[in-house]
Amino acid sequence: MSQPRYSVRVSSELRHLIPRFLENRRGELDRLRGALACNDLEEARKIGHTLKGAGGGYGFHEITRLGGEIERLAVRGEDVGGLVDALAEYLAGVEITFE
Q: How many structural domains does the chain have?
């Protein structure tokens, strides 16, 4: 089965920043997984907050949405595992078009 794809349109002015941007998001994904393994919802909340602020400025609105949801659920003490999986799927399947 092929990986789901998500299309994002990004300004060509940001082309040189996008590889590092995505690398940082993958690092945050790893940190989220570590936080979940330790049941550290405060760390998950912090990472979610960072994701919420990072995505939109680059055109990755799904990262912003998922980060906000992770933050919201973590504050409430609820499971964020499904959202972490959704973030992993998104990062694995995102396709960027520069305009």
A: 1
